[in-house]
Each structure stands twice: as C-alpha cells, then as structure tokens.
Amino acid sequence: MLLLIDNYDSFSYNLCDYFKQCGAQIQVVRNDELDMTTVLSKYSGIIISPGPGKPKDAGCTMELIERFYDKLPVFGVCLGMQAIGEFFGATLQRASFPMHGKVSEVSYNTNHPLFKGITPPFVACRYHSLILSGIEQTPLVTIAQTKMNEPMALAHNDLPIWAVQFHPEAILTPQGLILINNWLTCFSLKDTKPVLG
After folding, report:
1. 139-170: per-residue pLDDT in tens?
2. What CATH number is given to the structural domain containing 162?
3. Which of 193, 189, 170 lies closest to 74 in space, CA to CA?
4. Shortest CA distance to 87 belongs to which of 172, 145, 159?
5. Active site includes 22?
6. 191 domain-assigned
7. Above pLDDT 70, what percent of the chain?
8. Of 16, 22, 60, 78, catalytic
9. How many domains does the chain contain in total?
10. Which of 48, 108, 110, 175 could form a disulfide with 80 if both were Cys (CB 3.0 to 4.6 A apart)?
C-alpha cells in the first residue's frame, strides 16, 4: 500500500487514479490528518501531491520527509518536488514566468530509469510560480530541465527519492503514465497487473 499525501489539491485524485492504473494500491490522506506512528507499518512508499502555497505551509509534508526520507521510497509532484528540494538544502524562489496550465518541452537524462520508454519530444504540463535553485549544492541531481534550464525532475544520489515539477497526471502530459509506471516498477511497488491504456 502506498501513501499519497493530499496537500489540498484538485489534482490529488487524478494522481491517485494514475497510480491505480499502473497497478498500485494507494491510500489518500490529507496533510493534516496523517497518523505518523502508522506510516512504516502500513505503507511501502510515499507520494507527495501538488498543492497551493509553499512546502512549509503544507501540513505534515516537511515532517513526513524528515521522518521517512531514508526509510521509504518517495515520489514528489510539483509542491512535492519543492518540498524534497527544500528539505535537502535547495532554495525555493519565484519563477521568472508563472506557469499555470501551460506546457513546456522538457529535456531529460535518457539513462535515468524514470524516463525509460519516454520518446522525445517530452512535453509536460506545469502549474507553478515557484522554482528550485541550488540543487547542485545538495545530494540531489537534476534529471530533467526546460530550455531555460529550469529543473523539472530530480533524484537523490543515494536514496529512492525522485520528484517532478510538472504534473504527470495532467492530460497535457501525454507520457505521464509511463513515468509513474517506471517509479512503481523500479522500486517494486505494484500490487496488481497494470492496466496501461
């Protein structure tokens, strides 16, 4: 069973549905309703949803990362990536151009397993006005970026922590389901046979 922390975002259940399509059992818990004492006994991985505002205002999100980053695989989306980045020492700043429901072409590390089976051009839908900087000063590495070198995906050098700034569950990210399937496959987090479209 996977835990999806819902940061009060309208996309959380779309994200949940994508994970289910890929064969995962998943439970959605709002960021102010999680019992931290049950996480290790109930869940095999953590997904941090998008959401409004900054990570520090997203309920238990930062505490969840602090307590379990080295114990369970973690996947962050949008606010989830920003939270992971900030936790490991990156800086969150205002983006040059707010991106709300807009698409960008994203270049990516073709050797990283998150992008296995992805065919260029990879187009991703973005909903954010904040962006991470200083990732190179942390144990994280940027594995995808825009033409303006804005980080669009990151991975931890040693731990099973991956994240994307864009929305893989959005209809305007046509290969997003493949990314989610890759994360589940890489860390053996599937419970059923996927029903990929």
Report:
1. 999 999 999 999 999 999 999 999 999 999 99
2. 3.40.50.880
3. 189
4. 159
5. no
6. no
7. 96
8. 78
9. 1
10. 48
